[in-house]
Structure formats: C-alpha cells, structure tokens
Amino acid sequence: MTDERFEPPNAFESPRFAQLSTFMRLPHTRNPAGLDAAILGIPFDGGVSFRPGARFGPKEVRNHSLLIRPYNPVLRTSPFARLRVADCGDVDTNPMDILDTYGRIEAAVGGILEAGAIPACVGGDHSISLPILRAVARRHGPVALVHFDSHQDMWEQYFGNRYFHGTPFRRALEEGLYLPAATVQFGIRGPVYGESDFEFGEAHHVTVVRAEEIHRDGIPAALTRLDRVRGRKVYVSFDIDSVDPAFAPGTGTPEVGGLSSAQTLALLRGLAGLEIVAFDIVEVSPPYDVSGLTAMLAANVLFELLSLISLDRR
C-alpha cells in the first residue's frame, strides 16, 4: 500500500462521472495505515432539533466532489501530489442511539489518528464533533478550535437532552477537549433565546467574530483574530449553515445574513499556516438542497482544507 499513488484518476482518460463515488474518486480503503489524511463519512442526524436529512450528507458531498480538479491555483498546491489521501468510507452509525453512535465515531476516528493520519470527517449533524474531539484530545491533548457556524452550539440542553447538535462545544469544553481561550468562532448570527445564550462562551473567553462584523470590516480584519490560535494544534469544525442559505440552502437550521461562498473560501484560505490535526464538515442536508449547491460547496470546503494541510508537505 505504501508504494501506491493516492490521486484522483486522470480526467482526460477517465470521465469524472464514472467509477465509484468516493471523494474526488480517490482510492477507497478501510485501512488508514500509510495515509496522511483519511476521508471519513459519518452519516448521522439523530441529534438534530429542526430539519433532518444530514445523514445523507456524506453521500452527496462525495457525489458533488466529482467536478473538483486536483490543483488549487489560489493556494498554489496540488494536495494529492503532496499528501496520501484515501476515502475510508463511512462509520456504521446507530440511527436509534446517539451515545452508542458516539462510541463508534470515537473508535473510528481514534483508529485513523493511531495510524498517523488526519481525520477529514464529513457529517452528519454537528453533534458528531464531540466524539471526534474526544479522539483528537486523547491523541493530541486539548486543541485550539476554529469553528465556522451561525450558532455557538453551547446550549446546556434541549428537551432535557444534554447531547444534540446544539451542545457539542459546551460538552467538549466541560470535558477539557479544547482550549476556549484559543478558540475562534466565525459567522455567528441570528436570533437566540436571550442574551444569556452567549454567557457561557463569554465566561470562558471564547472569541466570536459575528457575521455582521465580517460584512462590515472585511475578511482581513476577521483573520487577525486567529492570533490566539497560531502555534497550537488546531481542530477545524465547519458547519455549512455558517454560509447564507442563498448559497447553501440544504441545511437543518438555516439563518439569513450569513457568509457568501466567496467569503467562506477567503476565510478558509486565511487559515494557511495553522497546524490542522483534524476537521469536520457538518449539517449538509440534501433533502433541502437546491441543485446540489450546498453539497458542492461542502465538497469544495473539504478540498480547501486538504489544500491547507498540504502546504507544509513536499
């Protein structure tokens, strides 16, 4: 396996609509040994509070990745020439049991980390970030966090349930999985239940860059907030609802006034130089998508993150 090339097939020889629908038609393997990064689907939406459907996200992100070409001209990198990347398939989640699913996710991500690869996780709803972070923290210790979202996902509970897609970063902070003072949340916006909804993050010195601030002051000003993250191992969590529903309608809890797709790419590219040790892309709900816009954007977000990771590899 270690002598094989892990790159998409040549599209001049094999049409992009052919072959198995792995991410960008990369090789499929269940064994992450020898990989630099492993694509892992996590088809679970048992933690949603409004519109379901994110369990179908990994499949559609793979389908809409087929058009992406392998060279990134903005970051000036060909990630698959620098990294050994393969699609490791999906976690077999338990759609009836969120806690059992957490154990399955943590085990699968832990296996990738133990093999020395970076987990590139595609959900699924945002509740999956908690077990991923458990595995990451067991490997790397508490990490810095860069979180793209319209919501902080730091509520205490919903209907008495402490585990759903609105609580992962409160639970993860309580478990010491990430460093709140080395956390930046981009794109937060929309109505909440009250001013007290922000108190938990404020009390732990989490940095919030609201969508309105990004629109008003621009991308370069927003990126200066990453100073508290640099020099640490970083986990990136990208909720597709950080993007405005005009550009990403296929999600469970859309909020107006969000990032454009162009702003999203600019912010992601501003992460260059960070040591990203794992990431997730979540909340793509194909039943609410329009012409695959949301899944296509999510696939490009994944490509951009792989491109960032490849920058320090030769």
Question: What do you see in this structure?
Answer:
- The structure is a single chain.
- With 314 residues, this protein is an alpha/beta fold.
- It has a single domain, classed as Arginase, Chain A, CATH 3.40.800.10.
- The protein is built from ten helices and eight strands.
- It has an eight-stranded parallel beta sheet with strand order 2-1-3-8-7-4-5-6, sandwiched between helices.
- α1 packs across α10, α3 packs parallel to α4 and α4 (129-140) runs parallel beside α5 (168-174).
Q: What is the assigned CATH homologous superfamily?
A: Ureohydrolase domain
Structural class: alpha/beta
Residue windows where pLDDT falls under 50 for at least 5 positions: none
Question: What series of H and E elements makes up the topology?
Answer: EHHEHEHEHEHEHHEHEH
Helix fraction, binned, reads 25-40%
Widest sheet: strand ordering:
2-1-3-8-7-4-5-6
Shape: globular
- Number of helices, counting only DSSP H or I runs of 4 residues or more: 10
Q: Give the termini distance in whole angstroms.
A: 20 Å
